[in-house]
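sorry to bug you again but im stuck and you know this stuff better than me. below you get a single protein, a line of residues and a line of whole numbers that encode the local backbone shape. mainly i need to know what kind of three dimensional shape the backbone takes. anything you notice is useful, everything is just below:

***
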Amino acid sequence: MSKAIVVGSINMDIVAFVKKHPKIGETIFGNDVKYFPGGKGSNQAVSCKRIGCETAMIGRLGDDSNGQQMLEFLRNEGVNVSGVVKLEQTVTGTAFITVSESSDNSIIVISGANVLWGDEFLKDIDVNEDDIVLAQFEVPDAVIEASFEHAKKYGALTILNPAPVRQISDEILKRTDVMVVNEHELEELSGMPVSAKDDETVFNAAEVLAHKGINSVVVTLGERGVRLFWDGQRKRINSRSVTAVDTTGAGDTFIGGLTAGLLKGGTLKQAAELGNIAASISVTREGAASSIPTIDEVNEIFGNNDGN
């Protein structure tokens, strides 16, 4: 059976809810603090699994209580964690997140175990030609390069979410089939000005990435929906109107839905529509992984979606 193999970060998220984000040097009082499972890799793995595909996680944890909680969480979600390794005398990745009343967020990430990889991890990637290998930028470049090279040996599809954004090595670029970026990541990587309000700037910047060797570029624009660029084609997918509570993890939810849709044999457009619906549900809930909907919840809307 085809599966998603997620090579990425595993974090514990500590979320502070505030009226507004503090300015530099300013001290403010928050409304609440909560702990949620997180990390872009973990979030995307949970999203893939909840939205209906078999999923394996390849990652690193510390030997602290957060690491044990995250391992149990992933296992309880049904994610294959045989490729998750605990490192001694190491802290688990931690994200400190501030969420304002307008649902905007700011994030500080302490990488911890997420950046401590050896060469042995490739033995844990059991990949077949019908699989998808998915990575993000909360792990070192060398890990992504090796994972994608391994995936290509077996003919698997690769998806890259270059977040947090940094320049992408040629080794990663030439082995990436689908790139998923937001407005700011697209602008940084393309070197072109991008405005979510102007589709022409979005598509032109996406075309620049395509010329670097990316087969398909998927751009997430929050409340403005999703834009797709592949084989010279341009497609706009509108967002769903919802009342957002917390946007943390919405992008990860989208990517899980996109991956699940592709593994089920959908076109890029169909898979992106599935991810778009999943993300629209997630922003109505608090937390990252905790906000990800199930396949039944998504299908309740997706089955009635006309794709316009």
About this structure: DSSP finds nine helices and 13 strands in the chain. The chain has a mean pLDDT of 93. The CA atoms of residues 10 and 42 lie 5 Å apart.
